Amino acid sequence: MAELMANSGRCTYFFLYDGTKVQGEGDPTREGICYFYPEQTPVDQQELLCGQLAGVGRCVSELSSSPVRVLRLRHSKFAIKMEDDFFWALGCAMDFPTVSMCDRLDQLIKLFCFYNGPVRQSYQTNSRETLALCWSRYLFYLQAGATELHHIFSCLRTIDSTHIDPLLLLKAALILQACQRCPLVLAGCILFRGRVVSTQMPPCLTVRVMAHETQTYNKVCVRLLTWKSLVSFVLSGQHNSIGHNIIDFRPRRTRLSRTLSDTPSTESTPDLEPEPPGRPMRLDAPLSPGLSRGAEQRDATPTNDPLLSPASPRFPEISPLTNQKGPRRGGQEEEDEEDGPLEKSRYYSFHSPDGNTSQTEFQGEAPPPTDASPLGNPPPAGRRAPEREGYPEGRAASGGSGGDILPGAGVKDRTVVPMTLYQHRVKGLLLALLVEPHLQRDTEAMEEVYHSSLASLNGLEAHLRTVAPGAPGLQGPYTFAHYDCVQNTLTTNVSGRAGGDQDHSFVRATSLLHTHFCNSDALQEAIIRSARTAVYATRSVAQETYFLQHGGALRNSGVPNHQDTAFTLPSKARHRLLKHGVSLL
Amino acid sequence: MKCLLIASESAEVLFYWTDPEFRQNVQDQYGASQEEGQRPPAFEDSLNTLFAPIIISCSTMVDRLGDSYACFTTENQHNYVLHQFDECLYIAVNGDGQECEDDLRRKIYVMKKMIEVLFGMVNLSSNLLRKELRPQDTEQRTGLWKHLQGLLETYSRLRENDQSFLVEAVERLIHPTLCEQCIEFLERRLLPALNSSSERNGEEVLHSFILVHTKLLAFYSSRNTSTLSPSDLLALIVMTQSMYPSNTDQEDPGPEVQPPPEACSHCTTPPIDATYCSDVESVSVSGLEMFYTPQPSPTNRSSSGSGTSCGMAEDSLITLEVSPPDPLAPTRVFLEVSLKDGLYPMMPHSMYCRPLWPGITLVLLTKIPNSSVAMSVYSYLEAFAKLEKRLSEGQEGPAAARGQPTVHDLRSKLDKFIKALGPCDIQVPYTLHHIEAIFYCSYAQWSCVCLASRLIPWCKSMKTQLCGVYKQCFLNGTTRGADAPQRLSPALQELAQAMVQEKLMDWKDFLLVKSKRNITMVSYPDFPGLVHFICVDRSSGQMIAPSLNITERSTSELGGGPLAQFIRGKVWGLVRTARQYLQKGYSTVTLRDGDFYFCYFLWFENETGYKLDEVDLPVLPDDSPPIGVLARDYYRKLLRYYSKTHAGEVVKCYELLTVHLGVIPTEYILQHCRQLASKLWEPSRNPLL
C-alpha cells in the first residue's frame, strides 16, 4: 500500500453513477451512486462529485452531441465514460498523462464486463455490494505493484526474458499450442507470479485474464494444483479473432531450430515419469504443514472448482454441486467439502491447509448467498437462468432478452459472447485458457486438456522458480524504457522504488513524450532538454523507446550547438540498448 | 464551431461571441425543442439556458470543493476551456478541431487583456465591470459587444495568419535606412510639431508609431517616457487592425455568413429597459441608426471599429449619446507605465489611429491631462488592499494598533487628494465626499469599537468607490459633452496625418509590397535544406521570420498552394509543441516529424552577446496562463527569474525555431541553427528600436 501511495499513477477517485436512478426532482443523488472510491469518502462529498460531474457532463455532451471524455479541474482531472445512462469517472493526479488515464478507465470497465457481462445487466442481477467488491478489486489490480512507467504505458507485466533461458519461453508457448489441439480451447496464456510468460491472446485480453490471476496469486501464494473455470465475456469481434491472434513473449533471438525438435522430449520426460502431483508436493513441503493430508489426495484429479464455475442450468453436473457446496463452504466445513460432493464428482480440488485458509478468506468476502467469487461473479443459478436463455448458443445477442431487462441502446451493437476461463495452477504458475463454455460438459476433452499440460506445467514451474526473481535489468550510466506497442510490454531499467532524481525526471519526460507520440502520427523522434536532463525518444509503428544518459551536469547555455551532448543521445541509445535486446536501427 | 462567453456568477451573460456554425448549432437545438408555431427564443437567451448549468455547477464546485472546472474534452474532440477571473467566468469552446486547449485558454486571456486595455482599473471591481460589460441600454450593449467581438475576431485572424501574432512578438520591416529616416522624422518633426501646438488640449503625445499592416515601420517614444510594453503594443496593433483591417481580408474574404436577422431580439429586454430606450431615442443625438442592427453580426466588423470606442461603455444614466463612428475620436486605452517609483498598471492614454493609406496607419498615444489622478487612485487602491489584507490576517487589538498609523496616514493623504480633485469636475467630488463619509465613519467605528473585522467591508467599499472615481474620470471623459470632447483637435490630427503622408508618399507602394515579403528564404542561400525559421528576441519583444504568405496572390518561394499551407500548419504546430515543453521546463526541443526536422531553442545572453548558463526553468501547471506575451508576459517573468542569479547584468532572452528537410544530417541542421542564432541579431542586419 505504501508503494501505491507514493505512486503518482494512483487514482484519486473512481465512481460509477447510474443516471436512471435519479430522474425526478426529489430523487436523492445517492440513489445513483453505484460505486465510489475511496469508499470512506463522506456521502455528501460523494453526492457532490457525482451530481456535479454527471450534471456538467450531460450538459456538455448535449451541447456537443458527444459524450465527455476528459474533465479537468484546477487540481485534479477525470477520465469520463458516458454510456447507456451510466457515468464513470476516474480521477488521477495532474501529472499523470491524460491518455494513460483514459486508457485505464477503459481497461477498468472492460475488465468488469469481462467477468460480469454487460454492466446494466449485472446491476440488475447482482447486489450493489457484490459488484462494489468487484470494482474495488479491479481498481486495486490495475494500480497495484507496477512502477509509474507501467502505468503510463498501461502495459502488461512480463517476466524478465533476459534472465530466462529462451527454451523455457519456448516450452511455455508449446504448452499453449498443445492445449489448442482441443478445438474448444481458443487461446491461452501462462503466467508466473503475476507476470506473463507466454500468451496467445491479444494484450487487452491477457490483462483481463491476469486480473484474476494476480488477485489469487497475491492471496494464495502457495496454493497447490487447482483448476477451475469461470465465466467471462468477450466481444463477439474479439471472439472471432482470438484464435488467430497468437502472441508469445519469446525474445526474437530464440534459436527455434534447435528447441523445436528437442524441447518436448527433454522437458516432458522427466516430468511425466514421476507421478505428476508428487513433485509439487515435495517442493511445497516446507511451506505446508498439512503435508500429509494433501499427499493423500494427490492422486485424484483436480476438479473444476465449482465455486467459480458458472452456475448455469445447462451444466447439470456442475450446478447442483455448486448449490450444495456454496453454503457449506461458507460454514468452513473442510471435511464435508472433501468427503461429500467430491466423491460424486470426478474432479475436485486439492487443498493444503494454506489453500484452505485462503479459500475461506476468498469465500468470506463474497456474500454467501450469491455463491460467487468476488472476481468472477456468476450470479446464482436461479436468477441467471432466464437471461442465459437469451444467448443463442454462445453467440449472445444481449438485446434479445427484452427491453425491460436490458434497457439502453448502447448495448445492442456490443454483442458479448460468454466464454469460460479455464485455470490450472501449479503454485506460482498459472495456465489460463479461454474455452468455449461447453468444454465443461465435455469431460473427455477437459481431461485431455488437463493431462496434456499437467506435466509440462510442473516442469516449467520448477524451472522458473529457480530463476532469481526481481533482479532488475542491467544497470548502466543511463536510464531507458522500451515499450512494445504490439505486445504491450515494457522493458526498462528503472527500478520501481529507487526513485532517484534522474529517474523522476526521466519518468516526467517520458510521460510528456508519450503523450506527444499519442497525439501526433508523424512524430518519429524527439530530443528534449532542460538544464539538467536530456531525454531522447524514438518510435516506430511497433515500439517506443526513451533514453536518458546519466552524467555530470550538462553545463550548457542552451544556445544551438552541435557539440551539445544532448545531440549525441541517439547514437548512444542505439549502442547501449543493444545489450538489452532493443534494436533502434 | 467556436464560441466565447463571459458570464457572471449568477449566470448572466456579460459578453458572447460565436461563429455562424455555433450559432446554427444552438438554434438547431432550440428549434428542435420548441413547439410548433412558437418563435425561437432570442439567441442570447438560448445561450444562457445552455450554459447556465455549467456556470452554476462551476460556482458550486468553487464553494464546496475549492476547485473549479478548467477544461472538458468530448469524444468528438470538442474542447471547452473555462477560467474564472474574479467573478467573471470565461468559457471558450471549439468544435472544429482548429483550436486546441492551449489556443482556447490563450483566447480567454487575450479577451481579458482587451477588457483590461479598454476598461482599466474598473476590472478591479467585479460589480462595476459587470455593469460596464453589460450596459442596461440595449443599443449600447449591442455596440459594445460588437466592438469586443470585432477585437476578438481580429485577434483570431491574426493569430491564424500572422507569424508575429503566432509567437506574440512585434515584427519590424527590415529596411534599415528607411526605418532610421522615419524614426528621425517622428522624433524631430512630428512629435515636436504636435506637442508644441496649442490645439493639443493639454494632451501630450508620448508614443508614435507607423504600422504597415501588422509590421512596425518606425516607433518613437518621447524622452523620459516609460517604454511601451510588448504586450500593450501587440494589443494596440490588434485594435488598429480591428479599426482598419488590412487589405489581406479583401483578398481572402472569410466566410461572409450573415446570421438571419432577429427582429424579436429587442423584445427580450425587460420592460424597464424598453421605456428607458424610448427616453434615449428622444433625447439622444444623431447616429443611433447604425446600432439598430438588431443582432451583432460576428463577421461584420467594418462599422464597429472606431465608432464604438470604450466611450460606449459609460454609465448609461449619465451619458446618452451613441456617437457615430467619428474617425477623429480617440480611443481610451489603459496601458502599463513603469516609472522610477514603480510599475503602474492600467494608466489612461488616448489612442489616435490615422489611416495614411489602406494598410498603412499612424498611431499616436497621448497622455491625458488628468492622468495623475489614475496614479493616485492606483496607490490608494493598493493601500486599501494592503490594509484589508492586514485586517483579515490579524485580529482585533494588536493588529488594529499596528494598522492605525497607516489609516491615519491614508486619511490625510486622501483628504489632500479630494481637495486636489475638487475643481476638476462636478461629478467627482460628489462621489469622493461619499467616500470620505464612509471613511470617517469607518475610522470612527474603528477607534471606538476596535473591531478590525468590521472594517473589512468598508475597505472593500472604499476600493469600489475608488474604482468608481476612476471610472468617472477616465471612462466617461472621452465623450462627455459634445461641446468639448477631450482630444487633440481635429486640425492637429489632420496635420499629423498629412505630415507623415507627405514623408512616405514615395514609399507607400514599396512598403505595402515589402510588408508581404519582408525577408524571404532566398536571402539565406548558405543554409541548404532550411525550410523556415523564426527568431525572437524576447527582451525587446521582436521577431524575424521569412514571410509565409498563404492568403496572398503574391506567393513566396513556397508558392501559394497546398505546400505553403502545409508548411504553415507545421510551423504553427511546432510553436504549440515548443510551448508545451517550455511550460514543463524544457528549453531545447528537436523533433523528427514526417519529412521534416524541427528545432526549438531558448537561451540567455548578456548584453555583450556572451551566452549565459542555463538554469532550471520553472515547471508550470497545466492551467497556468498561456506562454506568450500578449495576454501575460511569460518571458518578462522568465527574465526576472533568471536575473535573480545574474544580478547586475543585463540579461537577454532569445528563441529560435527552425524547420529543415528531414534528409539533412543532424549535425548540419545544428550548425545552421548555430549560425542563424549568431547572425540574425547582428546590428547590420537588424536595426533595433
What is the compact description of this entry?
The complex is a heterodimer of chains A (585) and B (689). Chain A has 585 residues and is of the alpha+beta class.
Approximately what portion of the residues of chain A adopt beta-strand conformation?
15-25%
Overall structural class of chain A, as computed from helix and strand content, comes to alpha+beta
Measured on Cα atoms, how large is the radius of gyration of chain B? Answer: 26 Å
Largest sheet of chain B: 6 strands, mixed
Number of strands of chain B: 16
State mean pLDDT of chain A (0 to 100 scale).
69
Strand content of chain B: 15-25%
Low-confidence stretches of chain B: 249-323, 395-400, 478-483, 684-689
Strand order of the largest sheet of chain B: 6-13-12-16-15-14
Q: What can be said about the biggest beta sheet of chain A?
A: 6 strands, mixed
Low-confidence stretches of chain A: 1-6, 217-227, 243-413
Read across the widest sheet of chain A, the strand sequence of neighbours is 7-6-11-10-8-9
**Using CB atoms under 8 Å apart, which protein chain pair has the greatest interface?**
A-B, 55 and 63 residues
| Shape, per Cα inertia axes of chain B | globular
Number of helices of chain B: 19
